Amino acid sequence: MSSAQQLLFTALRCDIDNLHHLATTADIVSDISQFIHVLQRERGASTIYLASKGKRFKTRRTTYLAHSQAAEASMRLRLEALSQEARPQATARLLRRIATVWLALDELSALRHAIDTFNISPDSATQAFNHLISGLLAIVFEAADTAVDPDITRALVAIFHLMQGKELAGQERACGAFGFTLGHFDQAHRTLLNQLVDTQQRCFNTFAEFATPEALIAWQQSLSPRTLAGICQLRDIACQRSHHQTASGNTLGETWYELTTLRIDTIKTVEDTLNTQLTALCHHKIAQAQAALDQAKATPEKPLPAPCEQLLALTPTQPLGDLTASALNSPLSRSLLELTHAQSSRLQGLSDELENTRKALRERKLIERAKGLIMAHQSMSEEEAYRFLRKTSMDQSKSMADMAQSILDLSAMLQRKEEKQQR
């Protein structure tokens, strides 16, 4: 066997090793998907349990906690396999992500104990779960970012954005459960709820861009219009300022939880379909690579080419434009593009920070001018004028700056009217 043929066989074996690693990664993603799903349920139940001072969801939370622990044990076994590989195929960044999450998993028992003893607020508990799930999603993102096969990369990107959208839907469930269980939403939670709705939709749009036609069909057929209508109705109620009580006296927290859980469980079925497709794709690629290796071994070695024939065979078969496009997808070029993007993001961040500072100064001036008018016309002190402005803006669901502008506009209009009457 010639050295050239031996190198070709080695290359094919490397392809097979990489694909086997991607298949292992697909299994890890599937385990993470299941763990996140049950963890999201535990988070939502814990929120209602804390907000109701232990009166609601005690039994359900205990059940979900057991599901989370079982899924965590299964996921840990899969992740441990990576650390025991003789020749690790995973990138250093992926291994670091996993190590970071591993340390966070060790803190789960302390979080659960704090929830049991009511030594943590519903918002703080939700944030703690959010951070852990964010770390788990980062593993999926890293797997998608380092995959070498384009078809598998697309599948991982679709899964990541669907999982991210479902996590935001889970955060929306926890936020809504908290507000409805308490009987009202403050401005911060109303704002958060609207942000979560907008952001998850962007994730689902990206998922639809990378998903296979079969996955898109499953996505479109699985979402119940009736469930979505009920959720939208409750979203509208959450934006109101009144307390939310049903006729029977029970809060809407459980109704919200059940409807949003139906939606999230439906998304999970699509997620499972994607994971199944990804596993099948990996094994299909492995079979193709193995068949190519077997065929290469079975093919007799070709005789030496005529002089200069091998040099002529090195002539690129791809147009230079295609080679340039391929070069842009290389790891080196991707790193350069990431660096450029990071610099651009940093500059944009500085610009945004400057604009936010200017906006804050403009709003402060508006509020000060409005306070002066209120003090002059209502015989109020500065503190009383500020409290009046704040209460009025809250009653009308406006920011203080918008309310101040309305007062200034109204004052200017009344002044012009008085000037006309004097003439």
Summarize the structure.
The protein is mainly α and 423 residues long. It has helices at residues 3-51, 58-83, 92-105, 108-116, 122-146, 150-182, 187-210, 213-222, 225-238, 253-298, 309-313, 320-328, 331-378, 382-395, 400-422.
Radius of gyration: 29 Å
Return the structural class: mainly alpha
Tell me the domain tally.
2
Number of strand segments? 0
**Terminal Cα span:** 108 Å
**Biggest sheet record:** none
N-to-C order of helices and strands: HHHHHHHHHHHHHHH
Shape label: elongated
Domain ANTAR: 347-408
Protein name: Nitrate regulatory protein
Describe the SSE topology.
Blueprint: H1 3-51, H2 58-83, H3 92-105, H4 108-116, H5 122-146, H6 150-182, H7 187-210, H8 213-222, H9 225-238, H10 253-298, H11 309-313, H12 320-328, H13 331-378, H14 382-395, H15 400-422
Descriptive overview:
By secondary structure, the chain is mostly helical. The protein has helices at residues 3-51, 58-83, 92-105, 108-116, 122-146, 150-182, 187-210, 213-222, 225-238, 253-298, 309-313, 320-328, 331-378, 382-395, 400-422.
Features of the shown structure:
Nitrate regulatory protein; 15 helices; CheY-like_superfamily; Arc Repressor Mutant, subunit A; mainly alpha; ANTAR; about 425 residues; about 0% strand; elongated
